[in-house]
Amino acid sequence: MTQPNMEAFWMPFTANRQFKAAPRMLVSADGMYYTDDKGRQILDGSAGLWCVTAGHNRKSIVEAVQKQIATLDYAPPFQMGHPKAFEAAEKLAAMAPKGLSKVFFVNSGSEAVDTALKMAIGYHRVRGDAARVKLIGRERGYHGVNFGGISVGGMAGNRKHFPVSLPAVDHLRSTHDLARNAFSRGQPEHGAEWADELESRILTLHDPSTIAAVIVEPMAGSTGVLIPPKGYLQRLRQICDKYGILLIFDEVITGFGRLGADWGANKFGVIPDMLTCAKGLTNAVVPMGAVLVKPEIHDAFMAAAADGAVEFPHGYTYSAHPLACAASLAALDLYREEQLFERAAGMSPYFEGQAHQLAGLPHVKDVRNLGLVAGVELESRPAAPGRRAYEVFLKCWEKGLLIRCTGDILAISPPLIIEKHEIDRLFEILASALRETE
Ligand SMILES: Cc1ncc(COP(=O)(O)O)c(C=O)c1O
Predict the structure, then answer these.
(1) How confident is the model at residue 117, as a pLDDT?
(2) Same CATH topology for 16-54+339-436 and 63-337?
(3) What pLDDT, on the 0 to 100 scale, is given for residue 164?
(4) In a designed cystine with 212, which of 56, 99, 132, 395 is the match (CB 3.0 to 4.6 A)?
(5) What is the average per-residue pLDDT within 141-156?
(6) Which atom of ligand 1 is nearest to the CA of 253?
(7) Ligand 1 proximity of 214 Cβ (cutoff 6 Å)
(8) Distance from the CA of 26 to the center of ligand 1, in angstroms?
């Protein structure tokens, strides 16, 4: 297959010059596999980008989108509606963590996060509590790339090129604690007390009456699979409740079964006030995100606005796009029909066992896992952080496996349809790539 001209496309989050010198080109996908431009089968160990929950080319979703595009290709979402938008919201609300029954559609995780932050500040304001404008994120959090998301996010690399931030932001420390928690299986034992600094440091410094919301990923995915210590999220919830602060869970990765439960909220038994999701919402077939909120939040906006006024002046041209709604309705049906979240839970002990076989291989300083996600942390090369994991990623690609790397951490998060023999193959390839990496 001849290569396309690569001059024009400025690739996102990619080492463009390196890629264009040696491209990795995907041309089709089915089930657990991509096919590259050389006709090789590539085992998808990362569900695309944590998003192809039910595997690729699923017939019912493809057909739903095809049917929709031939029926209603687009409908403006401002002051107009189309039936599938309401149906998709109803279906999502019906499976949401208890009480999160109002749904605002967007087109990505980044948009979901910025929408949620605006909603949180707006909510306090419409209730007459306009001093609550500050937002608390966490170090090593990832909340997408828009200005709100990078402000509350805590990935130093993503922030350093853009040294501007929302003005009223602070961060909790990360829960990552290898000294005490290395090679944990499931949730680590140590670190619930890191939540207490919300009260002891941050609220003391800022005064609770100025804080609108705390936003965290229940499990931080993109920054290297950082699993919350037992009891940590419960403590955050208690402190937020004590001071009237909204708790937002960013479930862009943890939503839709990744942790072996429908949501991170339900996995950990902590219900936030607001939740952001995207990725698996449509099985990644059409871009879509959503913010789910408790009815009190929605109702406060409704009660505060004058008759006929727009209650929340926010939205996107493609909010609740008909194709995205059709894809989401079909994807959520498929997840239920195939009991994919239960399947992920059932498969996770086997996955855990295979993942932890990597312990003891060269440069492996941690293996951690939960549900169908695992993180493998490597010793960094002196003066070259991230290089070693990138080389392992490249070797895996050469051997027919797609994984993710972030810094010197490898992330494995296959579609939830993965079979045991594919788990074996995935970790065999990864082990041989680790053995061959200097
Ligand atoms: C927790 C979290 N929030 C937000 C985002 C951003 O989503 P998107 O890339 O769809 O904007 C991601 C993406 O990986 C994420 O993991």
Answers:
(1) 98
(2) no
(3) 78
(4) 132
(5) 93
(6) 16
(7) no
(8) 22
